[in-house]
Amino acid sequence: MLYTFSEDVKGELCHLKINSEEEARSELSGFLKSKGVLIKTHVDLFVKLEVGFIPAARRIMNLMNQVEVDKKKLTLIKNKLKKKRVQIFIPFSIMKKLEIDVLEIPSYIFEDLSYFSAFLRGLFIASGSVTDPVKSYHFEIISHNESLLNIIKNFLVKNLGVEGKISKFNNNFRYYVKKSREIVELLNFLGAQRNADKMEKIVNSREIKSDFNRSLNFLSANAKRVGESNAKQIKIIRNLIEKYGYEVLSEELKKLAILRLENEDLSLSDLGKLFDPPLSKSMVYNRVRKIFKIYENLEGKKVE
Predict the structure, then answer these.
(1) Is residue 35 within 8 Å of 50, Cβ to Cβ?
(2) CB under 8 Å to 273, separation ≥6 — which residues?
């Protein structure tokens, strides 16, 4: 079966390794915020999740298994009219026990980029799409909840520099991003590195063919941005080490701090390649943010 680019991205995301129970809970919360509906039957109270992508249904089952829920307690029903659609019925008592809320976003999701990434991944798989970059650049997530999309928009601007917009879409709302580089950043952040690399190659090729000067200007601007970002990281790390020593850092953060100081010109992507096994750009960024957080806590002030 031939998949669209959007389905291929979702398929890649559905096969990502689940690193922890917290990430599993976060991703489940994303699915629930997108497609979770409370259903009352004569037997029990259920949370119904309907997804239009078979691997997504398997993903939900695997996430449930990760949080130690017996799959036998879940009910799957395939839609006979729409063969791709699958309904999953989860007893409400399980959701309550796991402290996963259909209505609220757990506060801890905003405390760690990996948790927010997992949450956004569930939301995207359930109700998002991305256009084939060969045709155009467009990433979106649909929701009836405008405030949820505003929370996502503000978080991504602050933490990734991704500037999306929100518009009315039929009876729902749509968060969307149209800048190619920001879509690549989002795909990397979600964990779809293979498709992010694929899109980046398409974008690079198109830019070179259409306007060499524009490509040159972009590379210069990007180099400046990377240089400014690197300078900030190096400054914070040096201040931290000089004042408090390496002892305040865990082993993984200590290794990153040393590599950052020894390789001042490398981007986060290239820095990640120095690890064994290699780390993605998002993983390196997450560790940098942890170092910043330690410094902020010790200094008692926010890093500008």
Answers:
(1) yes
(2) none
DSSP track, 178-247:
--HHHHHHHHHHHT-HHHHHHHHHHHHHHHHHH-HHHHHHHHHHHHHHHHHHHHHHHHHHHHHHHHH-GG
Q: Is 295 helix (H, G, I), strand (E, B) or coil?
A: helix
Using the predicted structure, report yes or no on whether residue 46 has a pLDDT greater than 90.
no
Instruction: Please name the residues in contact with 290: beta carbons below 8 A apart, sequence gap of 6 or more.
Output: 253
Most confident range (mean pLDDT) of 74-78, 221-225, 243-247 is: 243-247
Helix (H, G, I), strand (E, B) or coil at 103: coil
Q: Cβ contacts of residue 260 below 8 Å, gap of 6+?
A: 230, 233, 234, 237, 271, 288
Interior/surface letters 170-206, b for 16+ CB within 10 angstroms, e for the rest: eeebbbbbeebbbbbbbbbbbbbeebbebbbebbeee
Kindly report which listed range (42-46, 55-59, 203-207) carries the lowest average pLDDT score. Answer: 42-46
Structure tokens given for 110: 């905003």
How far apart CA 120 and CA 202 sit, in angstroms, is 25
